[in-house]
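We emphasize that the prediction below concerns an isolated chain of 76 residues; any contacts that depend on oligomerization or on bound cofactors are therefore not represented. The input was used exactly as deposited, without trimming of termini.
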Amino acid sequence: MIQTDVGLRQTIDVIANMYHTLAELHRRIAPQNLDNYHLMAEGPIEEIRRAQAELNEFLQIADAFTPGAESERQAG
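Result of the prediction step, given as a token string:
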């Protein structure tokens, strides 16, 4: 759980690193074997989801990226 600005920065760095990892896997693995790429990408994708959820919670924007959330807020 993020509690400080340092933790915020670290979480942003984790997300960036996971995207870099995915890009490298895509470059090296996907052209030869897309199924292996998808399998190997599961870990970084799950880490991105976990870190993004922590980031959203810290910034109090948990529903900001949920489709339809904006129209539901306006209607309520």
